[in-house]
Amino acid sequence: MKLIVGLGNPGKQYEKTRHNIGFEVIDDLSEKLGIPLDQAKHKGLYGMGHVHGKKIILLKPLTYMNLSGESVRAVMDYYDIDLEDLIVIYDDLDLPVGRIRLRQKGSAGGHNGIKSIIAHAGSQEFNRIRVGINRPTNGESITNYVLGRFTSEEQETLKDVITRCSEACEQSLEHPFLQVMNQYNQ
Q: Using CA atoms, how far apart are residues 124 and 168, in angstroms rounded to an integer?
């Protein structure tokens, strides 16, 4: 069983913000794969389905970003999901808008949602898809920036980015993550 997690914050005020790009990818996957996010427990909103003969769970933790690991750990424990079957999608300040980067392990890089998952998983070795959001350039605080919305120009770019992230997730259901990583990191 595969667990695909998109990080974000619950609530209308956070919709379409830079920090919620993970939620947007999960919504896209939900629609494309026909897996409704219709279950609310384990501190998250999730859906289950079968794709390419594999059972998958799509999860949006509802714990707020800094506590994302609580929901991820609860789902992993309840459904007995191994760490190598986890993929986490999240925003990254160190990548430009329009870029994605797949990794199999690594530090949190200052991302509090990833810090929480590492703490609750007890390991840095899990698959991730980092989605570029840039850094603020006008002296704006990081908090205000990540909780702000994308510009209209960036929103156009994001449509393609969300599609690529969804495709990478789908590819990982049929191919080893390393192979998918090599394909999408070019």
A: 20
Give the residue from 87, 98, 113, 142 showing the smallest Cα distance to 7: 113
Which CATH number covers residue 119?
Answer: 3.40.50.1470
pLDDT digits (tens, 9 = 90+) for 92-106: 999 999 999 999 999
The 8-class DSSP code of residue 19 comes to G
Q: Which two tokens stand for residue 184?
A: 């999408």
pTM as predicted: 0.96
Domain that holds residue 177: 2-184
CA-CA-CA-CA torsion sign (138, 141, 142, 143): negative
- Classify residue 78 by burial, with Cβ atoms within 10 Å: 0-12, 13-18, 19+: exposed
DSSP state of 137: S
CA–CA separation, 87 and 143 (whole Å) = 25
pLDDT tens by residue, 26-80: 999 999 999 999 999 999 999 999 998 889 999 999 999 999 999 999 999 999 9
Helix (H, G, I), strand (E, B) or coil at 170: helix
Number of domains in the chain: 1
Q: Supply the residues annotated as catalytic.
A: 19
Say if CB 24 and CB 163 are below 8 A apart. Answer: no
Give strand ranges (E) for 37-184.
39-41, 44-51, 54-61, 86-92, 100-103, 127-132
